[in-house]
């Protein structure tokens, strides 16, 4: 677990400084290094994935083959992404729901996973 935290921090900070994958010539280096780091954070990262600059994964993130997380996306724990799913830059995925029990006057957070199915595309500000 300690190793995955180290690689998570490397992905968050060093991965953000690497060239974007679309940059001609050296972009492939950034893509491969971020993919390598993501696989050290989560064992559930598929083949041929693209983790862009500013994006990250958690230890419980599932990312299917050929999928990508766009630049500066904010994801939640427990995110499940199918095969060939594309996330555009700056997508936001949150999974906490809140239940309010009036009798106890308490607010409880519950977590449900977010699932993106096979061959979908999501983007910020699209409807």
TrEMBL record:
Q: Which SUPFAM superfamilies match?
A: Trimeric LpxA-like enzymes
The cross-references to InterPro entries, in alphabetical order and at most eight, read:
Trimer_LpxA-like_sf
What is the protein's given name?
Acetyltransferase
Give the species: Neisseria meningitidis serogroup B (strain ATCC BAA-335 / MC58)
């Amino acid at each position: 677990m300690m190793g995955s935290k180290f690689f998570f921090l490397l992905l968050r900070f060093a991965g953000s400084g690497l060239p974007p994958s679309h940059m001609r010539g050296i972009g492939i280096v950034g893509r491969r290094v971020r993919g390598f780091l993501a696989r050290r954070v989560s064992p559930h990262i598929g083949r041929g994935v693209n983790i862009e600059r500013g994006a990250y994964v958690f230890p419980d993130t599932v990312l299917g083959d050929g999928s990508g997380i766009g630049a500066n996306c904010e994801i939640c724990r427990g995110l499940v992404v199918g095969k060939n799913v594309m996330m555009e830059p700056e997508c936001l995925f949150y999974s906490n729901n809140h239940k309010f029990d009036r009798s106890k006057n308490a607010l409880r957070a519950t977590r449900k996973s977010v699932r993106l199915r096979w061959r979908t595309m999501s983007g910020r500000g699209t409807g």
